[in-house]
Design brief:
Chain lengths: ~210, ~150
């Protein structure tokens, strides 16, 4: 990694140059004292962390706090990060554990608001959702999702909303890939039933 | 899951299972030819696929939020604060060491009758000061940061 440090010192704080570096290289630079590399890591991953946390809290203020806490914990623990591994699952695992702890600390009846402090417009196009809403009501979908056991809901959203791989989800949640598949299977099955889908699906076909 | 469900699940053909498992873990074109044929002919698998596609699309189209610059700045500020605290934690014990060594020297100066005694105290002070500069000023992280 020393060559990267040497190179960066010649690049005189070039943000574009940092942008091309891998997470692992940015971590090495951060540990060598380059603040800008950690800033690049934050900018690269903050949106995913924020939305990842938002799926669990459904609250923008809490998601902002948890995102901040996550990066602070990551910064503190950076020295212990094994740079042979992928950074994202490690980061999201810290985000998940912090958020779960926070949720446990709160009262079960804590209200879930939609604070607007840190939000910008949703970045998803309108077209896709309009098309889907012809078949399914979003409200019904979200209700069905929220009725799922937490682990099923989280796994489903990690896979289909966050677009994480089985391997990544397995590292984030600390359970095996076969358990992830099983959680996903149960999540989808419950959702299909709750949304009155699958009336002639695999199970029903055999009648 | 009740007994009826369990029986029904048992009866499900293994090909249905294979097709469904492969469909959810791989992209559509990765299905084998016989699996594609099965998907085309089996209404259960077709319905299952439509359901999964709808659910997937629904999940994908859930809103995703951008992070504001103010939050980014808040995160970066908290990290900087952390770094500052870490450094002051490192400096505090050293400062205490230096001060107590100096106080000790002042208080017990009378009992240090020989030049050698005073000299050894001064030597200790210089050593501590040397360690301090090694730990604080000589930190390679700082030097690198200055060079960037
Ligand atoms: Zn089938």
């Amino acid at each position: 990694m020393n060559w990267i440090i040497d190179q960066v010192s010649h690049q005189t704080q070039n943000r574009d140059y940092l942008r091309d570096l891998s997470d692992q290289e940015l971590i090495a630079l951060t540990l060598a004292g380059n603040d800008r590399s950690f800033e690049m890591l934050v900018r690269r991953h903050q949106k995913q962390v924020y939305n990842f946390v938002y799926q669990m809290t459904r609250n923008h203020d809490e998601s902002a706090d948890m995102t901040q806490e996550t990066f602070l914990k990551v910064y503190r623990a950076l020295g212990s990060f094994d740079r042979e591994r992928e950074f994202k699952p490690w980061l999201l695992r810290i985000a998940r554990n912090s958020t779960l702890n926070q949720i446990r600390r709160q009262k079960p009846d804590a209200s879930l608001d939609d604070g607007e402090i840190y939000i910008k417009e949703p970045s998803t196009g309108e077209d896709a959702s309009r098309r889907v809403e012809e078949n399914l009501s979003r409200a019904a979908f979200e209700k069905a999702l929220s009725d799922l056991p937490d682990s099923q809901r989280d796994t489903f959203l990690y896979k289909y909303h966050q677009d994480l791989s089985y391997q990544e989800i397995s590292e984030i949640m600390g359970i095996s890939i076969s358990s992830i598949k099983s959680l996903l299977f149960r999540a989808r099955d419950s959702l299909r039933k709750r949304l009155s889908l699958g009336e002639s699906g695999l199970v029903e076909e055999q009648e | 899951m009740d007994d009826k469900d369990r029986d029904r699940e048992k009866e499900a053909t293994s090909l249905c299972r294979t097709v469904q498992e492969n469909y959810e873990s791989a992209a559509f074109p990765n299905l084998e030819n016989n699996e594609l044929e099965h998907l085309a002919s089996c209404s259960a698998c077709r319905n299952w696929k439509e359901d999964i596609d709808s659910l997937t699309e629904m999940a994908e189209s859930m809103p995703s939020f951008d992070v504001s610059e103010s939050l980014t700045q808040k995160i970066l500020a908290s990290v900087k604060e952390e770094e500052r605290e870490r450094r002051s934690l490192l400096q505090t014990p050293l400062a205490i060491c230096l001060l107590s060594a100096f106080a000790w020297l002042l208080l017990f100066q009378d009992s240090l009758e020989s030049v050698w005694g005073l000299g050894s105290w001064l030597l200790a002070l210089v050593t501590i000061a040397g360690f301090k500069s090694l730990l604080v000023d000589g930190n390679p992280r700082d030097n690198l940061q200055k060079s960037l």
